[in-house]
Design goal:
This protein has 436 residues and is α/β, with parallel strands linked by helices. It has 3 domains: 149 residues, Nitrogenase molybdenum iron protein domain (Rossmann fold), CATH 3.40.50.1980; 204 residues, 3-Layer(aba) Sandwich (Rossmann fold); 36 residues, no CATH class. It is built from 17 helices and 15 strands. The strands form 3 sheets. It has a 6-stranded parallel beta sheet with strand order 1-12-11-10-13-14, with helices on both faces. Helix 3 packs antiparallel against helix 8, helix 6 packs parallel to helix 7 and helix 10 packs across helix 11. The chain is globular, with a radius of gyration of 26 Å.
Amino acid sequence: MRIVTWSALDKATQADLLARPRADGGDIRAPVADILAQVRRDGDAALASLTQKLDGVAAKTLRVPPSDARRALEALPASARRAMQRACDNITKFHAAQKPQDIACDPMPGLNCALRIRPLDCVGLYVPGGSAPLFSSLMMMAIPARIAGVGRIAMASPPGADGRIAPVTLACAALCGVEEIYCMGGAQAIAAFAYGTQSVPRADKIFGPGNQWVAQAKAQVALESGGPAIDLPAGPSEVMVMADAAANPALIASDLLSQAEHDPQAQVILLCLRMDMAHNVEAAVQAQLADLPRADIARKALQSSAIIVAENTAQMLEIANLYAPEHLILQMRDADDLIASVRNAGSVFAGPLTPEALGDYASGTNHVLPTGGAARSIGGLGVRSFVKTMTVQRINADALRDLGPTVATLARMEGLEAHARAVDIRLRTIKEGQDV
């Protein structure tokens, strides 16, 4: 990892240091658009042919029976099932506490305004397969969707070499109560949820991480007129660690590598206060890499990562808020006191005993988080991601006599005469004592 002193860098070099890695797959907008068009035109037939062409296998079936998921759950070792259940329990407790409530307000006598919460009708959940079946992402999506009261929850995951969804993902679907399961992956799965096919429902909103093809497909369908909403801007995983002089280099190295092993495009950054700490952490990273099963992936990620030596804690916080990391780990003695100064982060892990992996699986918080600096403006997934709000207002005659002329005046100031007349006619009706 590159080791630098922040104050020794000019502004341009500092910006380059915090820049996210660029995807090296070239411009995929046109081929993704072609996949979307094929699925929109040919539906299930396109899904079958694209699975054969892009995944190199023929999916055994597009719609997976719920009984297959239940059998996969029954086949899990007892210890694995208990671990998965415990994670689900914690995720359920934390997200149940987030459920938004209806509100009502009377801005003036006779005028009532209300906010009503309504769940989405249908959502599509994408669960990556590939080098690692990320079943934990399904827990993070399906549980808040269920708590929100979503009417129809459909999930998709790509086939493995045997043409089937990974058994552990199917087991997780059964545990989370997801019964509408589709064996499809990549941009074609996003297209199926965006447009609907003969078998797959059109989703109002599409959720889930994926590779750059999935991310690009989500971006394109969300921009179409009448297209579905999407959860978050997707990008490679990232972590920033803030460490004081008392932090354990081995613990820091483990946190950095837990993200670096995700993806060659992942980025990990350490902020520390002393150069000797920087070198000790670098040595610990290399020692732990020696027997890491995904070491090759981690080494590629480390090429675009850095250790930054800052002057003080205030400067570390300044850098962290500038970077706006997906995950921020505070390996600091005063971690709890620092949280108030953290403005931009997807999820914060406070104290040396709190690894980021805790949030990935079983603490209860959601691991679907904003990447690429998006934490400056949005937060991670939660129950609110699966609902929409609807306002309701009602006014009586006395309140309309009071407020109506104000509305008519404002409408005419904007040159919208019909708006003003919609108020005027009601005021005349009330004045004349007509029934309304």
